[in-house]
Design brief:
This protein is α+β, with helices and mostly antiparallel strands. It is globular, with a radius of gyration of 16 Å. It has helices at about 5-35, 75-90, 100-115; strands spanning about 40-45, 50-55, 60-65, 90-95. It has a four-stranded mixed sheet.
């Protein structure tokens, strides 16, 4: 393996770890909020061949956390989201990296009231 190939793998690993930390951080914040509100949820909810990061069955709400690589997959994400919405007729929230936890919780709260 060339030095360049090794460098690419190392950088990819660093990025994936950072992205996973981002997703984990926000999932923890959201789960803590939902636990405090006594709202049940399912992580990695399966719809067809896809998985939703977080699904709240009582409110039929899907929450997807978009790491940086999602900006390169917008068309795929649109197709995926439409498929999921069609299959389970759910509302959707997409969370972008860099969004504040306070804003995320506010958006979820607003959507929960709309879905109630």
């Amino acid at each position: 393996m060339t030095k360049n190939a090794v460098d690419i793998l190392i950088n990819k690993f660093k990025y994936n770890v950072r992205s996973a930390r981002f997703e984990y951080k926000y999932l923890n914040e959201i789960e803590d909020f939902l636990d405090e509100m006594n709202i049940s949820y399912t992580e990695q909810y399966k719809v067809g061949n896809y998985r939703i990061d977080l699904y709240i069955p009582k409110f039929n709400l899907a929450i997807e956390i978009d790491e940086k690589e999602h900006k390169y997959k917008r068309e795929y994400d649109k197709i995926r989201q439409k498929y999921i919405e069609k299959q389970i007729h759910c509302a959707f929230i997409r969370i972008n990296e860099g969004e504040s936890c306070g804003n995320i919780i506010a958006r979820i709260t607003k959507k929960l009231y709309k879905c109630a």
